[in-house]
Amino acid sequence: MTTYINTAAGDHARARDLYLWDRELAVGFLGDLAFLEVALRNAMSSQLEAKWGPTWYENNNMPLDDRSMNTLSQAWSRINGAKTPGKLVAQCMFGFWRGLLDKGDHAGKAPRRVRCDYEVLWRGVLDKAFPGGRTQAKSDGLRWNREYALAVVTRVNELRNRVAHHEPLVNGMPLPGQHTRLTAQQAHEDTMRLAAMLDRDLHAFLGAQSSVPALLAGKP
After folding, report:
1. What is the span of the domain harbouring residue 86?
2. Which one of 36, 73, 184, 217 has the fewest CB atoms closer than 10 angstroms to its CB?
3. Residue 3 in domain
C-alpha cells in the first residue's frame, strides 16, 4: 500500500479508496485491451496470410529473426490438438505482434547469420493492417510509418503488461528505456489511438462502451 499511502499524503482512508479505484481502472483497461489485442493480431495475421499464405509462419520467403522465431515456436508448443493457423495466431502474445513492427534483428548463427529487415514486413503488408494509421498520425502531427505504429503499439503493450501484473496506475506508468511516464489518461488515449488505426467501427465501439473515461473522472 506504500504507493497509495504516499499518493494520499499519509491519509490511509484515501489510500484505500485510491487502491480500490486503481483496481477498477485496471479492470476497465483490461476490458478494452481484450478487444484491441484480438483486433491487432487478426489484422496483422490477415495481411501476413495475404502475402505469404495461410501458413505464413512456415514460408521461408517471410523474413523472421531469431527472436520472433523463438516466440513463434513457443506459441506453437502451447497448442493443444490440431495445430491450425488460427490456433497459432491465438497463442501468439501481444509482444510477438509488437515485435513484427520493430526494425528486425538477426537470424541464424555465424558464419550464416543474416540480418532480417522488417521493413519488408511493413511496406505493402503490415502497413495495410492499420487503415486508419495515416489519418491518426496526421492528427498527431507526425509522419505515418513503421516507427509511428511501433511506438503506439509498444505503449499499449506496456499498459497491457502493467495491468496484467497488477501494477499501480495511480501515478501512471514508466516507459522502459525512455525516462518518461504516461499518465492513465494518456494510456487511455493510446488505446483509442490504436483502435482508430485498426478500425473506425472499433474506435466508435470503444468510445461508447469503455468504462475508463468515467473511472478517470471519478478518481478519489
Report:
1. 33-217
2. 217
3. no
Domain count, the chain: 1
The set of cell numbers assigned to 94 is 501481444
What is the pLDDT tens value at each position of the chain, 220 positions in all? 999 999 999 999 999 999 999 999 999 999 999 999 999 999 999 999 999 999 999 999 999 999 999 999 999 999 999 999 999 999 999 999 999 999 999 999 888 898 999 999 999 999 999 999 999 999 999 999 999 999 999 999 999 999 999 999 999 998 887 888 999 999 999 999 999 999 999 999 999 999 999 999 999 9
Residues 6+ apart with CB under 8 A from 96: 68, 71, 72, 75
The verdict on residue 68 lying in a domain is yes
pTM higher than 0.85: yes
181-214 CB burial, b ≥16 within 10 A, e <16 = ebebeebbebbbbbbbbbbeebbeebeeebebee
Do the domain assignments include residue 15?
A: no
